[in-house]
Specification:
The chain is of the alpha/beta class. The protein has 16 helices and 22 strands. The chain folds into 2 domains: 7-268 and 479-496, Aldehyde Dehydrogenase, Chain A, domain 1 (3-Layer(aba) Sandwich); 273-467, Aldehyde Dehydrogenase, Chain A, domain 2. Strands 14-15-16-13-12-18-19 form a 7-stranded mixed β-sheet, with helices on both faces. Strands 9-8-7-10-11-21 form a 6-stranded mixed β-sheet, with helices on both faces. A 3-stranded antiparallel β-sheet has the order 5-6-22. The chain is globular and about 75 Å long.
């Protein structure tokens, strides 16, 4: 038996001591108002702790600390090689505390410990390490001007970067933003989601331990309508990087326009189509990809494959395989390594998802599995946040469950006659984050990849990726890219220096 079995993770959960305060200018501190907010675990409905609930005054304090640190140059004026050394140490410390952080993530938002410990934490460590290694390999440019002049083009940090991240992959998405922003020489104010702030608060102290100067990395928990809005409107924030819903992303664009025209980058909602054509090379692999794509992290993924678009001639055969796999999914305690489906992030979100399930029934879709709460469990967990994996067939592209982001374990199956109709359906939403197509025909693959409006296209797979491959969307899924060297574009500006030689 693996050393890290159910008992191991339960024991780890009992030994946790959570960071509860904001982290500003190199130290933990209460919200200036003294306000706090409870952290309730979706695992069992129990209160884990209370954390600082920051507002405009705390945001202003954090931004001033970030600006002061940037102007002082203790980080921004370091050489890329020096920043690299510190960030590698930061990544090493995250790795050393990975079990603690993995359990915290599972308790805080319900991610299964198997995902948290084998994907989320390693991905976070890799992200920080990758940008650390990359930053001293970026070169400035010389423009091809007249021989009597030299024009240097420098990539320079913007200054103060606000990073506002969601609750579904709290640590990893935070690292996607803070790692390139810090590597480029910026100061960062991170606002984690009020539903999952604990790992962000913990790594703040690790950043200081690694050698990141005071004020360069600040973590300010709070509600979106207070702390988040204050960051969006702050006149001394130079750039804001947001991942979350399309509705809230639109608010941050408004805030930027109402304040200082700060640079905004958005990674927003998605309604990813998973297209399976009759010539798919392997229906078993396609079924695996469909189930993983729709139900990983309880479907709480921006690019979850929530729409299965399948050619009619293979629909029945494919659905047999999909339903078999869904029936075998193990739902239970997120701290059990055998669990594949944990709870949704909170009871309010579960109710939102349940409303979509009711709407699907009302609009004529056929519920073939799931659709109800899945508790109590044998171990008497009472979080009231568990929902069975749910699949609808006989879905039309006009139904709400086929067009709107549900962000839960709900799969809508849409039948089409051919590739052209599949592409039309795939593009029939306001989103364009990701898309997948399963085919053995190279021409069809190329046609789909060109025609589908999405930032990432997977062929004969779903949601595969690497830190070197960019992530971002088209249409109302946002703009700007996380991951890859392209992420530096969000946190740097180009400065041209023209020198006359005669």
């Amino acid at each position: 038996m693996s050393e890290k079995n159910y008992s191991y993770w339960l024991k780890q959960s009992e030994q946790l001591a959570f960071a509860r305060q904001a982290y500003i200018n190199g130290q933990y501190c209460d919200a200036l108002s003294g306000e706090t907010m409870e952290v309730i675990s979706p695992r069992d409905g129990k209160v884990l702790t209370s954390i600082a609930s920051c507002d405009e005054a705390d945001i202003d304090l954090a931004v001033k600390a970030a600006r002061g640190a940037f102007e002082a140059g203790a980080w921004s004026n370091q050489s890329p090689k020096q920043r690299k050394k510190v960030l590698l140490k930061f990544a090493q410390l995250i790795e050393q505390h990975s079990d603690e952080l993995a359990v915290t993530e599972s308790l805080d938002m319900g991610m299964t410990i198997s995902d948290s410990s084998t994907m989320n934490l390693p991905g976070s460590v890799e992200c920080v390490s990758w940008y650390a290694e990359l930053v001293d390999k970026l070169y400035d440019e010389i423009a091809p001007t007249h021989p009597n002049s030299v024009t240097r083009i420098h990539r320079v940090p913007l200054g103060v970067v606000a990073a506002i991240v969601p609750w579904n992959y709290p640590l990893m998405i935070a690292c996607w933003k803070l790692a390139p922003a810090l590597a480029a020489g910026n100061s960062v104010v991170l606002k984690p989601s009020e539903q999952s702030s604990l790992t962000a608060l913990r790594i703040a102290a690790l950043a200081t331990e690694a050698g990141i100067p005071d004020g360069v990395f600040n973590v300010v928990p709070g509600y979106g309508h207070t702390a988040g809005k204050a960051l969006g409107l702050h006149m001394d924030v130079d750039a804001l990087a947001f991942t979350g819903s399309t509705r809230v992303g639109g608010l941050y664009m408004q805030y930027a326009g109402q304040s200082n025209l700060k640079r905004v980058s958005l990674e927003c909602g998605g309604k990813t189509p998973n297209i399976v054509l009759a010539d798919a090379p392997d229906l078993d692999k396609a079924a695996d990809g469909i189930v993983i794509g729709a139900f990983s992290n309880q479907g709480q993924i921006c690019n979850a494959g929530s729409r299965l678009i399948v050619e009619s001639s293979i629909k029945d055969a494919l659905m047999v395989k999909v339903l078999e796999r869904v029936a075998s999914l193990r739902q239970g305690d997120p701290l059990d390594p055998e669990t594949e489906i944990g709870p949704l992030v909170d009871a309010s979100h579960l109710n939102n998802v349940a409303q979509y399930i009711d709407l699907g029934k009302e609009q004529g879709a056929r519920l073939v599995t799931g659709g109800t709460k899945a508790e109590p469990f044998p171990d008497k967990l009472t979080g009231n946040c568990y929902l069975e994996p749910t699949i609808f067939t006989e879905v039309s592209a006009e139904m709400a469950i086929a067009k709107e982001e549900i962000f839960g374990p709900v799969l809508s199956v849409i039948t089409v006659d051919d590739l052209d109709q599949a592409i039309e359906v795939a593009n029939s939403t306001v989103y364009g984050l990701g898309a997948a197509i399963w085919t053995s025909n190279l021409l069809k693959m190329e046609k789909a990849a060109k025609a589908i409006q999405a930032g990432v296209i997977w062929v004969n797979s779903h949601d595969h990726g690497d830190i070197s491959s960019p992530v971002g969307g088209f249409k109302q899924s946002g703009f700007g890219r996380d991951k890859s060297a392209h992420a530096f574009d969000k946190y740097t500006e180009f400065k041209a220096v023209w020198i006359n030689l005669v």
